[in-house]
Amino acid sequence: MNPQRFALLEEARRALPEGFKAELSGDLLVVQAPPSAAHQLNLSKIRRQFDAHTPTGYIDTGNTDLASPRTAKVRNPDLTYLPEEAMATTDSSVAAELALIAVEVVSPSNPENDWVGKLRDYPLMGIPLYLVVDARQKTVTLFSEVENGRYRLREDADFGETVHIPEPFGFILDTSGLRPY
Fold first, then answer.
1. Residue 130 pairs with which residues in a beta bridge?
2. pLDDT, tens digit, for every residue of 43-57?
3. Has residue 111 been placed in a domain?
4. Model confidence over 64-106: pLDDT tens digits?
5. What is the residue range of 85's domain?
6. b/e per residue, 131-149, with b = 16+ CB within 10 A?
7. Of 47, 152, 168, 172, which has the highest C-beta tally within 10 A?
């Protein structure tokens, strides 16, 4: 994408009113309303488990813009883990390739964004792991092993089952406490 066009779209994205989550995927500007309490509850249950296995020097963050100018993408995962030093900036975004994982709790109003758009964008942006929690379907899906701009591996589990989260986290994710909606 033309750098001037990317800059113009990025400026429009940042000009939205407070409280809206906006992402950029090529020529597409994706805007979402604030998440529900049930969404936040599931996210909290996932975050607690990841926090117990976070590599030294990394911190959890939600709603941090991950930018990949070379792919003309700015995405804002519900949860990610970034080097603490990368967060010591006044910039509004962090380089996407620094993220260890992107975690999304599927929005009931726009599930296609998580299942199609982000599944396409995250591997292109250099994010090695993508965890999708779909409370509508009562499923958790982990995508991993980026190759040729896509994830090669997929592991599916129903709520109540476990998912193996590979290194650098290296643990078994318990989904039994997640709530459907």
1. 102, 143
2. 999 999 999 999 999
3. yes
4. 999 998 898 999 999 999 999 999 988 879 999 999 999 999 9
5. 35-174
6. bbbbbebbbbbbbbebeee
7. 47
Residue 72, sorted as left (phi over 0), alpha (psi -120 to 50) or beta, turns out to be left
Bridge partners of 140? Answer: 133, 157
C-alpha–C-alpha distance, residues 127 and 54, integer Å:
16
Q: Which secondary-structure segment (H or E) carries 119?
A: helix 118-124
For residue 105, the domain's CATH number is: 3.90.1570.10
| H or E stretch covering 118 | helix 118-124
Assigned token pair, 7: 């800059």
Give the pLDDT of residue 27. Answer: 67
Distance CA 152, CA 148 (A): 9
Q: Hey, what amino acid is at 55?
A: P
Is there a domain that residue 40 lies in?
A: yes
Strands 130-134 and 102-105: parallel
Q: Could you give the number of structural domains in the chain?
A: 1
- Tokens 């500007």, residue located: 29
Burial of residue 79 (CB within 10 Å: 0-12, 13-18, 19+) is buried
DSSP assignment letter at 24: E
- How long a stretch of residues is the chain? 181
| Within-domain flag for 119 | yes
Q: Is residue 165 part of a domain?
A: yes
